[in-house]
Specification:
It contains nine helices and 25 strands. The protein has four domains: about 30-125, no CATH class; about 140-190 and about 480-525, TATA-Binding Protein; about 210-315 and about 450-470, no CATH class; about 315-445, no CATH class. The protein is elongated. Strands 6, 8, 12, 13, 14, 22 and 23 form a seven-stranded antiparallel sheet that branches. Helix 5 packs antiparallel against helix 7 and helix 6 crosses helix 9 (about 510-525). It is an alpha+beta fold and about 550 residues long.
């Protein structure tokens, strides 16, 4: 023991006390801690990055709900890897309805909501609160000025308050204990308002995208001139429904493609490029309703409520009449061909499974403006049908349709067929295939158009949210938060000293001009002290 003072001692040999341990968190404490971590802006940014990262497999790999044929081809090409990707725990062929993508998307929504909504409430409270109190020494602020006036303190303060308020500051007049009166002014809340509007709009945008992805659909269908289309899921060539889509959401419209016209530039640098596309439709919003006419053009869709019909593409559908060896008509009608180049050289196939005694297949090339090269090769020199012709390679044998394996309507499986003939036909011409009696007649052509039908119930919500995001971003970038204080205090001998000070969080150079304007306004509303008046008394420090 060592004596420090009389009656006071300390034990130098005692061990140091261990620091107190923080109290252990309860179950409710862990919940609150987890909620704070989830609703932090850092977590929201991480989740936003994860959502973008999780969408990458959906772009690189075929998906069950959009292209099941490509998924089947992937299984054939990668027999070991594909089953792993298709497991329920992975679901890389069904990314956007997988549990892990849905969980990340939902956590992002909750994180943003938990982060932004409380901030919006605090911002609303701050907007209604009084401006902050003035610093004691206004001359130490970045911007300051001192004026003198012959007005009384109360009159000077009222005049200054009105002058500052005219510049759209939020103003408060506060008397002080020493007889002075302070004008507190603040503006720039739109900066934080814009920031909150941006993030709240992002929430609404996520909600709109989710609604469209869950309950909407998108489908494409090829319609030949003269044919009709009924809006049913089974009538689409490619149909992509939302994960919670119901057939009852399909608008019961019908339409008929009466005529399609394409115009092209025929001279100059733009020769051969498209000038205008027009698809004349007759449509009815529901069965039994009167039909209406509509000129469908690119970027001018047919709108039926939340359902829209867009014009995507066009091409040619040559018409054929095929007779088999017995002389009977085994096939007759138009066949859509797919364009292969800018001159609309188009390829297609004609499958005639009903031909007797052997099935027939035609692999053909349609050229709208035909030019024959050496060797009988046909090419097109202009996309309009100025000199149409079709080059045909005919096959006999087994088309392989009875195997049960789906085939593309634009491909001909010739593995079990033999080449029978090759020829070129102009409209109205007939050619007999080889030594048999089967023949092919090129009757002419029709135009076809590719239509896209979309139903997105969240599109308007997402569009409004996107506009609000732009507005909020502009506000947060352009508006500056600034504060101004004006103190009027008596100085004796009929004088009032006015001290002014200002502070801006950003853009100090711009605020310097604004503060100078406020000082000019103050001088204009405060009468000057008469010349020769006594000097004001010094203020006690």
């Amino acid at each position: 023991m060592t004596e420090l003072d009389e009656g006071t001692s300390i034990d130098l040999g005692s061990a140091p006390q261990a620091p107190e341990r923080p109290p252990r968190l309860t179950a409710w404490g862990y919940v609150r801690y987890s909620w704070r971590q989830l609703t932090s802006m850092r977590t929201a940014l991480v989740l936003l990055f994860l959502v973008a990262l999780a969408a990458v497999p959906g772009s690189l790999l075929p998906q069950h709900n959009t292209n099941p044929i490509r998924v089947r081809d992937y299984f054939i090409a990668h027999p070991r890897l594909a089953p792993i990707f298709d497991r329920r725990s992975v679901s890389l062929f069904d990314v956007y309805s997988s549990w892990w993508f849905s969980a990340t998307y939902l956590l992002l929504f909750i994180s943003l909501a938990g982060c932004v909504i409380p901030r919006a409430a605090k911002h609303y409270t701050a907007m209604r609160a009084r401006p902050p109190a003035a610093p004691r020494r206004l001359e130490r602020l970045p911007e300051s000025a001192v004026l003198e006036t012959s007005l009384a303190v109360d009159e000077a303060a009222q005049a200054l308050r009105d002058a500052v308020r005219r510049t759209r500051f939020r103003v408060d007049l506060v008397p002080e204990l020493d007889g002075a009166v302070t004008v507190r002014a603040e503006k720039g809340f739109l900066r934080e308002t814009g920031n909150l509007v941006f993030h709240l709009a992002l929430l609404v945008l996520l909600l709109g995208v989710a609604v469209g992805g869950l309950f909407g659909y998108k489908g494409t269908v090829l319609v030949v001139e003269g044919d009709s289309f009924v809006n049913a899921a089974g009538n689409y060539d490619d149909f992509m429904p939302g994960h919670r889509f119901r057939d009852s959401a399909l608008a019961p419209f019908t339409l008929t493609l009466e005529h399609f016209a394409a115009q092209y530039y025929d001279s100059g640098d733009k020769a051969g490029t498209a000038k205008r596309f027009d698809a004349t439709l007759r449509w009815s919003p529901r069965p039994g309703a009167p039909t209406r006419s509509y000129d469908l053009q690119v970027n001018h869709p047919l709108v039926m409520g939340q359902t829209k019909v867009y014009l995507l593409g066009d091409g040619y559908a040559p018409e054929f009449t095929v007779r088999d060896d017995t002389g009977k008509v085994a096939f007759q009608g138009p066949v859509p061909f797919l364009p292969q180049d800018s001159q609309l050289s188009s390829t297609g196939v004609v499958k005639v499974p009903g031909a007797q005694p052997q099935q027939l297949g035609l692999d053909a090339l349609f050229t709208p403006t035909t030019r024959l090269l050496q060797g009988g090769v046909a090419v097109s020199t202009f996309p309009a049908a100025l000199a149409p012709a079709v080059s045909v390679v005919a096959y006999r044998g087994n088309l392989g349709l009875e195997s049960g394996v789906p085939q593309s309507v634009y491909r001909l499986d010739t593995s079990r067929m033999t080449k029978a003939d090759r020829f070129v036909l102009a409209p109205g011409q007939t050619h007999q295939i080889g030594a048999g009696k089967a023949s092919v007649t090129f009757d002419g052509y029709r135009m076809w158009t590719n239509l896209q039908v979309t139903y997105d119930p969240g599109k308007d919500l997402a569009l409004a949210a996107a506009a609000a995001m732009v507005l909020g971003l502009l506000l947060s970038l352009r508006v500056r938060r600034r504060r101004v204080w004006v103190r009027a205090r008596p100085a004796g001998a009929g004088r009032t000293v006015v001290e002014m000070g200002g502070l801006a969080r950003t853009d100090e150079s711009g605020f310097r001009h604004e503060f100078a304007d406020l000082v000019s306004r103050a001088r204009s509303v405060l009468p000057a002290v008469p010349t020769g008046a006594a000097a004001p008394t010094d203020r006690e420090e």
